[in-house]
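During the second half of the funding period, the structural biology subgroup turned its attention to how the target accommodates small molecules. The most pressing case was manganese (II) ion, which had performed well in the primary screen but for which no bound structure existed. We therefore specified the complex as follows and requested a full 3D prediction, including the ligand pose.
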Amino acid sequence: MMIVMKEGASADEIAHVVERVESVGCTAHISEGELLTVIGAIGEREDRVADLGLEGTPGVDQVVPIMKPYKLASRQFKDGADSVLEIGGRKVGGTNFALMAGPCTVENRDQMLDSADAVAAAGATMLRGGAYKPRTSPYSFQGLGREGLRLLDEARERTGLPIVTELLDLRDIDDVVEVADVIQIGARNMQNYALLSEAGKSGKAVLLKRGLSATIEELLMASEYILKEGNENVMLCERGIRTYETAYRFTLDLLAVPALKEQTHLPVIIDPSHAPGRRDWVESMSLAAAAAGADGIIIEVHNEPEKAICDAAQQVPTTEFQQLTDKLETITSVVGKTISRG
Ligand code: PEP
Ligand code: MN
């Protein structure tokens, strides 16, 4: 249920509505718009909010049901507006295009810092790199762990770029939270609800990747687990889904951009790297993502891709990244966005 307050409703009036909502066992999520404050009354017993007779309460304009199963993620909850997140001094969403770039995984100091320097020089928005890797084989490299986080921290110090890194396991949350500006929840963990709730509670921004076989609605429902903890800094990421097609690793579902943007106020990011699985197809998918209206991309870039420990075939060499960035500038300007920089 959504309680829309009148323009200029006082803090006391808002507090009173919050108290009434909580009195029937629901949680009140306050969203301050430019003109209006909206209170989302969320919980198992939302029906009881309808019975509170809040319509006549001072400061309340109207009480409207949220028709979708996802509530806080729904575009309706923000009165149709886009959320603009502020992460480490960079804006994500609205007219801002986030260019997140860096290696698949942190391998060693030279690799990480060289790659970080290059993506920073080309004007990336944030730096990516996994210290904990979800690998298909338990015998494959699993990431450098805490040493990887330490190197990411050094890369941030050096470049000033906010860090995007994956949280794979709840046991590592304290270490990851210490370094991450954005916690990445990988495709394989999209429905790990305990992990989502804890990421929500961490207060860090979260990049939630779509599961390999998840529907758009399941992705939105998963985001709700983060939002319900009071964490509004959530980005959704399409990274390719499983289909019958075997000509590439995954099918990049670019229609997820308009489909998600119709339903949610949250920024939508495309990962152009993991679906093609080969670097010569990454640039076209990056540009297509920008043309489709995505709010950013998260792309794998490596200083020596041929030597990369994982996802070697798809990582774009740092030497080619500037050129890709230049082309992205052109496409983003056509769709009315600007690459977000600090
Ligand atoms: C990654 O970003 O390196 C990664 C493992 O992504 P995904 O969870 O989408 O496979
Ligand atoms: Mn990867």
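Two results from this model are relevant to the next phase. The two ends are 37 Å apart (CA to CA). Residues 104, 130, 134, 186-188, 209, 239, 271, 274 surround phosphoenolpyruvate (ligand 1) (CB under 6 Å).
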